[in-house]
User: What shape does this take?
Amino acid sequence: MKCELCAYSVESCIAAARLGLDRVELCASPAEGGVTPSYAAIERVAAVKGIDLSVMIRPRGGDFLYSDEEFQTMLADIAVARKAGATGVVFGILTPDGKVDVNRTRALVEAASGLETTFHRAIDMTEDYDAALDAIIDAGCSRVLTSGGYDKAADGIEAIARAVSRAAGRIEIMAGSGVGSANAVALAATGVDALHFSAKKMIAGKMLYRNPRISMGGSAEVDEYALRVVDEEEVVKILNLVKPGLP
Assistant: This one.
């Protein structure tokens, strides 16, 4: 059972390596669900010893139907991730009618030759979950990240178990979204190859002066003076549950 941290900073990736996680998925912009991080961030995380690095390849937030220009950006970002030292890339691309875009997915896999390829939770947005899994396998991806077609993996646990059975070892199945110490054992029991979690907590930033008239993100509901960090105690709890015997 491998464990992957969804990380949005170099600091989080360093913590993941120190805590004994197997892999990080490096993203930017958590408010958008993760987009492609900067070259410098990829390069710095790639230098962290003892942990694999998968890089999110997503040119924008929103849906997974991409224009030709956006698709070309994805291809270029894969080349950038490779150059910066990533060991894998993460992407998902759909057709207008909610199917996996097999041709474009296969092109992304080919562009990433030599890197691990994860098809992300775009599978959970498809109109036929089982057919989508087959299409992802046909396209040649290394693994798929899924919540079973539900917002949280715990709610999609039956579909995740069905995906493990349907995959029959042809692709790795990784459960993600809302994964924590409260449900890690149940999700692991489905037979998935990996668990994906953020184990995040928010802490107060250290800015003393805070301008009350401005919201840089355009929403007063978002606390721009709170920092997202790894809840190390939660990570340790999860690892002790699914990887007993770790030092």
